[in-house]
Write the structure tokens for this entry.
Amino acid sequence: MPEAKVFTMEGKESGTVSLAPSLFDVEINLNCLRESLHQYLANQRLGTACAKTRHFVSGGGHKPWRQKGTGRARAGSNRSPLWRGGAVLFGPLPRSYHKKINKKKRRIALCSALTTFAREGRVFILQDFQLEKPKAKTVVSLLKGVGAEGKSLIIAEKPERNFYLSCRNLPDVTILPTENMSIYDLLDHDNLILTQTALKKLEELMG
């Protein structure tokens, strides 16, 4: 059964905790990871890019010159894509990039990412605490104490206000409630730090 070290807010180790095998010890499925990540990124796109085709460009209501006898090439409109100020040929139009993925695949992808963290020893459990006032130095000393190098994702059931304010200005720290954790957040960070309450909530949601 996978285990993770438990730390106090001061960054001192206070024991270990067993992690649910159904979440942190599964077969890693790279296909589901890729598909879930692509779905997340596609759903972030607004799809508002738009260029004016001949249908939308104003002007061009009459023929610039007669068909024959001028020595110039034939032209039917001064809003042709060939003309300066004319329409855009095959330009982008508003569209939806929304993709769907079934719940089973999404769960497999999340469990695969969590398993990767656990096997590499990058899951840290934080004892529940209460900060008297926001202080970024407290979070920095915590990360140094647990040995979290690189970008760290902190998952808290209901992020305490002072703790949230302490993490907000740190460039390599992201703090999220349990329900907002996504596959992108997991893959974009090097370390995963969960409070004890958040760990229980995660096991309830996905167990």
Notes: Residues 103-119 form the longest helix (17 residues). The chain has a mean pLDDT of 91.
